DNA sequence: CCCAATTCCTACCATTTGGTAACTATCCCA
DNA sequence: TGGGATAGTTACCAAATGGTAGGAATTGGG
């Protein structure tokens, strides 16, 4: 049992969850990773993530960029073109992300049908 | 590129995040896994998670129990004793969780110092 | 008789999150 | 002249999240 306390307080999960545990971040990373070219434009992502509002997508991308997981390349053209891609740090997260996805696929039925509602 | 759309819409990450992507769930799983006996009582968990309020801990535990990740054993004593432990499904999540933690440890410095504030 | 210990629950409140709809800016094209 | 395309932003609003403080239930101990 030793010093779980210290380990707990320093546990990186807190950082991970607080930064990418939101509704859309991991899905953006998933999509960028799936892309053939490794690069996607704003409205291209939107076309896949039909259930994510424009505002939330731009907010999510900004957040991912600030946290150095996504690279944002602006081409000064008209109309403007902006391309998003994974940074090396972003790519390094993919194995852990895949592990989570795989877990979800395997164990979904053991969890589904249970209500999420807490109150 | 094929049919990312379908893959996206069915992506288990959405379920995973929506259920355990909150502030405390993964930390509880982390602690239960670290425990020598595999079993922890309510106030025992609280003593480690000093920054989680009583209300949130009980809410989190209830949620984890409803999602079949944590088992709750009540002993009809006075004062009451309740023991929490990981279910098999809960244990099966540990490798993926460890991968996330390991990623956090390795890449934390590439992400830290960046503000989380979006607006 | 009151307090302690245990495992919560409840009321109340502030903050955060996320959605909709409309707006901006630019230039090309019809 | 007036869309259309691109990549957003902004204002406004509703819902979810999380915190504090106190209550509830039980029974043994001083």
Q: What would your notes on this structure say?
A:
The structure is a homodimer of 119-residue chains. Chain A has 119 residues and is an alpha+beta fold. The first copy, chain A, has one domain: Arc Repressor Mutant, subunit A (Orthogonal Bundle). In chain A, 58% of the residues lie in helices and 13% in strands. Chain A contains 7 helices and 3 strands, in the order H-H-H-E-H-H-E-E-H-H. The first copy, chain A, has helices at residues 4-10, 12-20, 25-34, 42-48, 54-66, 88-92, 94-111; strands at residues 39-41, 70-75, 81-86. The first copy, chain A, has a 3-stranded antiparallel beta sheet with strand order 1-3-2. The two termini of chain A are 34 Å apart. At the A-B interface, helix 1, helix 2, helix 3, helix 5 and helix 7 of A face helix 1, helix 2, helix 3, helix 5 and helix 6 of B. Chain B binds a DNA duplex (30 and 30 nucleotides) through residues 22-23, 41-43, 52-56, 58-59, 74, 77-82.
Give a concise summary:
Chain A has 119 residues and is an alpha+beta fold.
Number of helices of chain A: 7
Low confidence ranges of chain A: 113-119
Series of H and E elements of chain A? HHHEHHEEHH
N- to C-terminal separation of chain A?
34 Å
Largest sheet composition of chain A: 3 strands, antiparallel
Q: What is the molecular shape of chain A?
A: globular
What oligomeric state do these chains adopt? homodimer
Classified by CATH, the class of chain A is Mainly Alpha
Strand order of the largest sheet of chain A: 1-3-2
Structural class of chain A: alpha+beta
Counted beta strands of chain A: 3
Helix content of chain A: 55-70%
CATH topology-level name of chain A: Arc Repressor Mutant, subunit A
**Known CATH architecture of chain A:** Orthogonal Bundle
**How much beta of chain A, percentage-wise?**
5-15%
CATH superfamily of chain A: Winged helix-like DNA-binding domain superfamily/Winged helix DNA-binding domain
Number of domains of chain A: 1
Q: Biggest interface pair, residues each?
A: A-B, 56 and 56 residues
Radius of gyration of chain A: 17 Å
Mean pLDDT of chain A: 88
